[in-house]
Amino acid sequence: MIQKEKLILALDSLIELEKRLAVLFHRDMASSLSFGGLGEADRRKILEYFQARAVIQTKHANAIGEIKKEAQGGRSDVY
Amino acid sequence: MKRRPSSLLATVLFLMAALVYVIAKAGSFFLASYRTPDKIFSFLLVACEVFLFVHAFGYVINVFRVIDEPRADPPAADADPLGAPSVAVLVAARHEPEAVLRETFSALKGLDYPRKTVYFLDDSSDEKYKEEAERLCREFGLVLFRRTRPRHGAKAGIVNDCLETLKEDFVAIFDADQRPISSFLKTLVPLFKGADRLAFVQTPQFYSNLNASRIARGAAFEQAVFYEYICEGKNSRDAVFSCGTNVIFRRAALLEVGGLDESTITEDFSTSYLLHNRGWKSLYYAHVSTFGLGPENLVGFFKQQFRWAMGTLTVFRKMMLDIFLGRCRLRPVQMWEYTLSGSYYLVGFVYFVLMLCPLAYLFFRIPTSYLPTSVYLFAFLPYAIFPLAVFYVALGRRNYRIRDLAVGQFLGVVAFPVYVRAAFRALLGLKAEFVVTDKSKTAALPYRALWPQMGMLFLNFAGVVWAANRYLYERQPAILINAFWAFYHFLLLGSVFYFNEEADPGARTGCLRPRAGFDYKILENGAYADLDPSAWVTRFGVFLSGPPPVGALLMCKVLLKDGRSLVFDGQIFSHGARKRDGRVETKIGVVTIAGEERRQLESLIEP
Across residues B12-38, what is the average pLDDT? Predict the structure, then answer.
């Protein structure tokens, strides 16, 4: 069980993680591919994978945002 | 540890090759009957070659030591986070761009560790930056710390002031542009468990903006060389030093030596020396756990190198004095490693003398080597080729390409006047101000500011031309050898034209042509229900004046040259800040999947 206030804080952290950190991490990982000894085709494939992941994470952030809205508007204080 | 015969054999071979050369050179120096000016140049050359031999030998034995001791896998994260010790995470900054701080704070907020407190040590004097710091600390839930006493000791000073107020067991320190991965503390703090005399754990720096400019790329690979075999080799001798960021200190250890050393501009190196001198241990964790930004232009690179060079040489001078006065308590192997690190930046003098010697011979007939040409080639080639081969093969085993490594080496040579200036100041005991490495300026340097490099470049070119003239009349092989070196130095210094460019964070992404206007609005909901990753290929960059909505889905509108507009969905995949005409601009990288629009958009993107 978790109190409403704490739940909203946790959801905020999750949104931050999904929206900002994931994108930052993808960018950093993409730059590190230069060190991996990978061929151009493999690098491109991984970059595309990162980009697809970024889109999925944005969807996650939006979904979590919806949950947060519900929690903020809900009467219950314990979930 | 059982040493493999191949490693031993290789080390012995290198020693033999080096000794043959150095003995031949030194012998000819003492035996030859030449004039005093000739002897002076020859002595300088021998001294430089001894310096190179010592450092090459140090590198080679570290490489073989590391090859013989395979890297351990990263330790598993602590299974008992409830029993985890407390950690204060410190980030010190002075007038850093907001976009850079936002990224760092995001990463720090995402650190997965139960007992951490993040402190932002704001050293700004400008009201604008102070307000910015307060706003960001509120937004990210950080503790804002400001000096309570008059300003002293730059970054080390504010960290020490903060240290007095802390209660946590450990102190993690990051530069304002370094972003640790979420498992940083969870993985590294347990390394202190059961190691009561372990003072700090250092992790590598990794420049993730390596594609932003040629300088950034060169600096990234120059760094990589240091963090690969060199740090690992030092670690095996308990002589790895702190690099000031991406590091966790035991607070008790720091307090025992009076905090970070404020007497030098490389407080990290100096504090490490003080800790080792008191019998504390260090550990190098050889896995990239933090992503950061490196300098993107020559100004930033030169400032960074000047600070490192002057700081380490100052500590080196102090260490030599300690040895002389019997105050140095380091073990001999630690002393050897500190000597290598502390004296490395004398390499500026070495480059300078090596460039001067062929010119002295070609223009003034001052011989710097008294060896007959055949003996010179026989003794020199194995000695020169062996460490180079070890360097490229060892790093090749870790997937580094020769071209990238060479770019890093060229960049080091181009910085030789900076090293010379830093060495003079350090050895004469002159003070230098702490300068923050500049990541935002992107302008190229005017060539008159690069007069030492340009002057040597011209002299080497003139030397090659003059050598051709002399060889026509004199037909001496020594002229050809010296001409070869002059030409080699000409090529190395010529790389200044390659590096001194206007940095563009989107150089490898492609930018919208200036005539194409760009507009966007943030979409409320995800719009990619049926995403095909393979179609997600159009990438371009654009500069905006405001902070970037990172990760957001965008409704983008590009104005075409014929007056029509193109609307498509995009998503930001990267962003970075730069300063232009006093304003901070944010460059965002956008990707789009839109079908027909994508093809139209591609026609607007400059490769």
Answer: 79
Q: Which chain A residues are closer than 8 Å to B182 by Cβ?
A: 21
Please count the structural domains in chain A.
1
Count of domains forming chain B: 1
What is the value of ipTM here, to two decimals?
A: 0.77
Q: pLDDT value at position B530?
A: 38
Sign of CA dihedral B437, B200, B266, B492: negative
B208 to chain A, minimum CA–CA distance in Å? 5
Residue pLDDT, tens place only, B426-473: 988 887 654 544 444 456 788 888 999 999 999 999 999 999 999 999
* Partners of A48 in beta bridges: none
Q: Which residues contact B230 (CB under 8 A, 6 or more apart)?
A: B59, B62
Strand order in the sheet with B170-175: B143-145, B116-122, B87-93, B170-175, B247-250, B198-202, B281-284
Q: Answer yes or no: is A79 within a domain.
A: no
> Could B533 and A32 be called an inter-chain contact, meaning their C-beta atoms sit closer than 8 Å?
no
Quote the DSSP letter at residue B240: -
What would the pLDDT profile of A19-32 be if each residue is shown by its tens digit?
A: 777 767 776 777 77
Task: Give the closest of B208, B531, B536 to A32, CB-based.
Answer: B208
Any domain includes B75: no
* B399 neighbourhood in chain A, CB within 8 Å: 35-37
Note whether residue B563 is domain-resident: yes
Which stretches of B69-153 are DSSP H helices?
Answer: 98-109, 127-140
pLDDT of B535 over the 60 cut: no
Burial annotation B371-393 (CB, 10 A radius, 16+ → b, else e): beeebbeebbebbbebbeebbee
CA of residue B77 relative to chain centroid, distance: 28
Asked, for residue B450, whether it belongs to a domain, the answer is no
- The answer as to whether B319 is a domain residue is no
| Nearest Cβ partner for A19 among B399, B551, B591 | B551
Which residues form the domain of B555? Answer: 511-606
With CA atoms as reference, the chain B residue closest to A31 would be B208
- Cβ contact, residue pair A36, B399, below 8 Å: yes
Q: Is the pLDDT of residue B528 over 60?
A: no
Which of B106, B210, B574 comes nearest A21 by C-beta? B106
* Chain B CB contacts of A65 below 8 Å: none
Distance between B140 CA and the closest CA of chain A, angstroms: 10
In DSSP terms, which residues pair with B512 in a beta bridge? B605
**Interface test mutation site (partner A, options B140, B182, B208, B246, max chain A beta carbons within 10 A):** B208
- Which CATH number is B574's domain given? 2.40.10
Closest partner residue to B179 (CB to CB) among A24, A37, A55 is A24
Domain residues for the domain of A16 are 4-73
What's the rounded Cα separation, in Å, for the pair B420 and B425? 9
For residue B281, the surrounding DSSP H or E stretch is strand B281-284
Is residue B395 a contact partner of residue B60, using CB atoms and an 8 Å limit? no
Question: Which among B351, B379, B367 is positioned nearest to B478, based on CA atoms?
Answer: B367
- Å between A38 CA and nearest CA of chain B: 8
Cβ neighbours of B292 in A, within 8 Å:
none
**How far apart are alpha carbons B344 and B15 in whole angstroms?**
20
| C-beta atoms of A21 and B182 within 8 A | yes
Within a domain: A25:
yes
Ramachandran sector of residue B211 (left: φ over 0; alpha: ψ -120 to 50; beta: rest): alpha
CB contact under 8 A, A35 and B399: yes
